[in-house]
């Protein structure tokens, strides 16, 4: 009986360790590559206006997030090496300043640090810090959302609105995969804020985003 009890205790302990390990290393199913529309960030920041009063007029990177199908906001803040400035070579820093600026406070390095520590640490088994930023930049170069929307005559406007599918369709046509749209509410207006593209576990193969939540569909969407 004593033997059975200690084996059971051992099994429970081993399982607990296994769970802790999974949580700290951050197992994930796929990646969300999130691009944001800076004017929307700044429009909804009432108390603390953006440091640049003239926000950039192109989609910039918000982050590359390893995600779970059951809970796309997880994993996050995994145990692992924290952001190191020296691991970002100067040529990469200058590319990121264009593609991944801090559009709110203007502190680019702090923004990259926050994204790496919160999200990058959870995919370190596939992408080290350098690869994480390189891959994100390559995705941004390959999928120019600003241009795709422009080609479909979807340009910032204060007078017209679009449906969810008006915006998704040209992105799907250009990239071959379904994106996800995220919006911010500003009083009664639903503003387009982010376009999410999904990638497989290795961050190499572009896949459909299979969630429908994001902007409130079928409410109209403003892009300003
Ligand atoms: P997450 O932490 O999940 O990657 O993103 C959410 C946070 O990122 C929010 O607090 C949001 O305000 C912040 N965020 C989004 N874009 C920017 C940006 O350009 N600069 C800074 N500093 N924070 C940002």
Protein architecture, described:
The structure is a single chain. With 224 residues, this protein is α+β, with helices and mostly antiparallel strands. It has one domain (28-207): Ribonuclease T2-like (Ribonuclease Rh, Chain A), CATH 3.90.730.10. It is 38% helix and 17% strand. It has seven helices and seven strands. The strands form two sheets. Strands 1, 2, 4, 5 and 6 form a five-stranded antiparallel sheet that branches. The chain has a two-stranded antiparallel sheet with strand order 3-7. A hairpin with a 6-residue loop joins strand 5 (189-199) and strand 6 (206-207). The longest helix is centred in the first third of the chain and has 24 residues, at 2-25. The site of guanosine-5'-monophosphate (5GP) has 11 residues, from strand 2 and helix 4.
- Between the first and last Cα atoms, what is the distance in angstroms? 71 Å
Indicate the overall shape. globular
The SSE string, one letter per element, is HEHEHHHHEHEEEE
Helix percentage range: 25-40%
CATH architecture: Alpha-Beta Complex
Structural class: alpha+beta
Return the average pLDDT rounded to an integer. Answer: 91
Parts with pLDDT < 50 across at least 5 consecutive residues: 15-23
Main sheet attributes: strand count, strand direction, barrel closure: 5 strands, antiparallel
Radius of gyration: 20 Å
Beta-strand residue fraction: 15-25%
The total count of strands amounts to 7
CATH class reads Alpha Beta
Query: What's the number of domains?
Result: 1
CATH superfamily: Ribonuclease T2-like
Tally of DSSP helical segments: 7
Q: Could you tell me the CATH topology label.
A: Ribonuclease Rh, Chain A
List the ions, cofactors and other small molecules found in this model.
guanosine-5'-monophosphate
């Amino acid at each position: 009986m004593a033997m059975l009890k200690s084996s059971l205790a051992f099994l429970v302990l081993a399982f607990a360790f296994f769970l802790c390990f999974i949580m700290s290393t951050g197992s994930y199913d796929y990646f969300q590559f999130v691009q944001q529309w800076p004017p929307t960030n700044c429009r909804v920041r009432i108390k603390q206006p953006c440091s640049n009063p003239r926000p950039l007029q192109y989609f910039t990177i918000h982050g590359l997030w390893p995600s779970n199908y059951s809970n796309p906001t997880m994993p996050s803040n995994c145990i692992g090496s924290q952001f190191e400035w020296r691991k970002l070579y100067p040529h990469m820093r200058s590319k990121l300043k264009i593609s991944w600026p801090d559009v709110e406070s203007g502190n680019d390095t702090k923004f990259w640090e926050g994204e790496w520590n919160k999200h990058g640490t959870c995919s370190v088994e596939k992408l080290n810090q350098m690869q994480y930023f390189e891959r994100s930049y390559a995705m941004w170069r390959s999928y120019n959302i600003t241009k795709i929307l422009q080609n479909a005559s979807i340009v910032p406007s204060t007078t017209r609105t679009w449906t969810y599918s008006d915006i998704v369709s040209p992105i799907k046509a250009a990239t071959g995969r379904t994106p996800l749209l995220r919006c911010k509410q500003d009083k009664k207006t639903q503003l387009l804020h982010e376009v999410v593209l999904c990638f497989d576990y290795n961050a190499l193969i572009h896949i459909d985003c299979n969630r429908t939540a994001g902007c409130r569909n079928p409410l109209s969407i403003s892009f300003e």
